[in-house]
């Protein structure tokens, strides 16, 4: 396999991971859960919580995210994943 093909496959996998994370978060997002600072709390129940945790751990490793704790590292990975998934109107992932 040539390097460009490996890069393309890795990019497709990265977008798939970001989209799956976004899908699971949207599935469990309730109304009115946004804080005054714009922070949103999403309670993801088992078994989806296990999937989200695994996705965040993989993303943290891939992105080289580090934090003072496991939760801070996962939060940093989540922020990066959500940027990749793009909740904005211009995101390719928003096109049906």
How would you describe what is shown here?
The chain is mostly helical and 96 residues long. Helices cover 60% and strands 0% of the residues. It is built from three helices and no strands. It has helices at residues 3-28, 48-63, 70-85. Helix 2 packs across helix 3 (70-85). The longest helix is centred in the first third of the chain and has 26 residues, at 3-28. The protein is globular. The mean pLDDT is 81.
Tally of helical runs? 3
The biggest beta sheet is recorded as: none
The residue fraction in helices comes out at: 55-70%
Termini Cα gap: 31 Å
The chain-level mean pLDDT equals 81
Order of helices and strands: HHH
Structural class: mainly alpha
Rg computed from alpha carbons, rounded to a whole number of angstroms: 14 Å
Q: What percent strand?
A: under 5%
Strand element count: 0
Q: Uncertain runs with pLDDT below 50, 5 residues or more?
A: none
Shape type: globular
List keywords for this structure.
single chain, 3 helices, 96 residues, mainly alpha
Fold blueprint:
Blueprint (H helix, E strand, L loop, with lengths): L2 H26 L19 H16 L6 H16 L11
Helix pairs in contact: 1-2, 1-3, 2-3
What's this entry about, in short?
This protein has 96 residues and is mostly helical. Helix content is 60%, strand content 0%.
